[in-house]
Amino acid sequence: MVVSATSRPGRGRGSGDPGRPPPPSRGGRGRVTAWLPVRLRRLGLPYLLILPALLLELLVHLIPMLIGIGMSFIKLTQFYIRNWSAAPSAGWSNYHLAVDFNGPVGRSLLHSFFVTVGFTLLTVALSWFFGMAGAVLMQGEFRGRGFLRALFLVPYALPVYAGVITWSFLLQRDSGLVNHVLVDQLHLFGDKPFWLIGQNSFASIVVVSLWRWWPFAFLVLMAGLQNIPRDLYEASAIDGAGWMRQLRSVTLPMLRPVNQVLVLVLFLWTFNDFNTPYVLFGKTAPQEADLISIHIYQSSFVTWNFGTGSAMSVLLLLFLLLVTAVYLLITSRRRSDA
Amino acid sequence: MRDPKWLKWVRIIGLGLLGLFTVTPIYVMITSSIKPLKDVQGDFHWIPTTITFSAFHDMWSTVPLAHYFVNSLIVSTIASVVSVVVAIFAAYAVSRFRFAGRRAFSITVLSTQMFPGILFLLPLFLIYVNLGSAIGVDLYASRTGLIITYLTFSLPFSIWMLVGYFDSIPVALDEAAKVDGSGPIGALIRVVIPAATPGIIAVLIYAFMSAWGEVLFASVMTDEASRTLAVGLQGYATQNNVYWNQIMAASLVVSIPVVAGFLLLQRYLVQGLTAGAVK
């Protein structure tokens, strides 16, 4: 599939890549010298092509990440923000503070971590299930299929702040739809509960997040289903497989590579999600729904302690790296066994 | 596939529930935007009793919504177009050339997806402040800085998806173009890009949507002049009164460009995913 860079050494002069140091030879100085600059140029071309992407990633992601790691080792409080190179070294003290689970900072970080793990597992599992159910039930032809498909994708297409702010209106205690249905119409509660503060805020953030993410799972799984060859279903039908059997023995195994990527991406995006809790709860989330990204934001920007905030971010990144590595190891091994 | 009879009922109930879950907030957004303020502050009612379009008129003066709208439009358009061009070049290199560091590049770019935004938010803020004063270009609290930030957010997904898409285009087509005298770039422009148009459109929608919807960096990296909708929309709630009808009207209006574009072009997204990413 890949064209070797040296497959056609003689041509390719028409391509524009200025700025390569060795200028193209005008010929007439012997075969070897005439050929070399072009070959060099062809070798350089892929690097030239990835250069813009690489520079941008370096500027916005990689260098800031390294600086962030560096910041986790200094005492970066509001006194040093203007002149942060003068901030004194903190050694490991920011990390000690973050993982000292007997101290208030460490304890609340651990609490936030567990809340986030629970939130992520629930959201990913439910999003996958809803997306799978939607995609499988949409298979085949029926009236209104195209309309439904478009409708299901709307929450994903809506800007996160517009969708989530609508949910925060739905979840208002006195004027919201949720309490109107649950209390006034179904009489499930005696008194109107609060949904955006206290105990119930965890359920709220899971439901809102699910509403936003399941359409993405649906979209990817629908595309995945289209790639399963029809004959597999026909062959299994001839062998007498019913609908359930086909789902178990054809659809799910064929979707495994798609699921491997989908679940990982959903996990990472949900775990790191800042937008949903920030729009739903504002700068300070309720204890019960204190997701890690909001917690770190709060520790950095509200209390102006950026060193500790950076240490927490680094720990978060290490955790995500570990989970991703273990996940890929396990799922890839299972895949090669199958 | 022969469908059993019970499946019909499972389908109706299952899709019906999913539809209800999806549509309820959208219904509330639309109906609340045409209610007068006192109706959205009192008890909730499914059917609006009084219909007024005053929220659609008032929302422009409660906060400078048009200003935020223009900012979002400029930032998202430039960021998504530049991001797609950069992604096309990178994806072409990864798909068509074997070069040392090819795998390392792919892995590095993809792994940035994993970074918590919060980890590089503050360092990036410091880089922009210092680099900006060093080279004399405002990066912090400017649309330029926001554009540069956003265009890298969609790059990993765009490159990954386009590599899959380019891989599905036979190399023989490139070779044919080269026989006609095109170099590799000529082959990219004349053969690969036209053949990959659905994938490129899909990536463009994705990039635009992610820039239009981003909240975290917008909340830290903008000032009043460069503020985008993501932050500006919260202005309705910080006034003395919470103007829910205006919030809903504004949410509706700012969603229309992306939702309409997405729904018109969603088949390209499905095609793009089918051809490339999910294979």
TrEMBL record, chain A:
Q: Which residues cross the membrane?
A: 47-74, 113-138, 150-170, 202-225, 254-271, 310-330
Q: Where in the cell is it found?
A: Cell membrane
Which residue ranges does the record assign to the ABC transmembrane type-1 domain?
A: 113-327
| UniProt keyword Transmembrane helix present | yes
Membrane-protein topology: Multi-pass membrane protein
What biological-process GO terms show up in the record? transmembrane transport
InterPro entries from the xrefs? ABC_transporter_permease, MetI-like, MetI-like_sf
Q: Which UniProt keywords apply?
A: Cell membrane, Membrane, Transmembrane, Transmembrane helix, Transport
One cellular component GO annotation, for this chain's record? plasma membrane
Region annotation (Disordered) ranges:
1-30
Q: What is its main location?
A: membrane
Give the top-rank taxon of the lineage listed in the UniProt record for this protein.
Bacteria
The Swiss-Prot or TrEMBL record describes its family as follows:
Belongs to the binding-protein-dependent transport system permease family.
Q: What is this protein called?
A: ABC transporter permease
* Source organism of this protein record: Planotetraspora silvatica
From TrEMBL, chain B:
> Topology versus the membrane, per the UniProt entry?
Multi-pass membrane protein
Q: Name one GO cellular component term.
A: plasma membrane
- List keywords of the entry alphabetically: Cell membrane, Membrane, Transmembrane, Transmembrane helix, Transport
User: What's the short name of a Pfam family annotated to this entry?
Assistant: BPD_transp_1
Segments passing through the bilayer? 12-30, 68-92, 104-127, 147-166, 187-209, 243-265
Q: Where is the ABC transmembrane type-1 domain?
A: 69-265
Where is it localised? Cell membrane
Q: Which family does it belong to?
A: Belongs to the binding-protein-dependent transport system permease family.
Query: What is the name listed in the Swiss-Prot or TrEMBL entry for this protein?
Result: ABC transporter permease
Q: Which organism is it from?
A: Planotetraspora mira
- Lineage of the species this protein comes from: Bacteria, Bacillati, Actinomycetota, Actinomycetes, Streptosporangiales
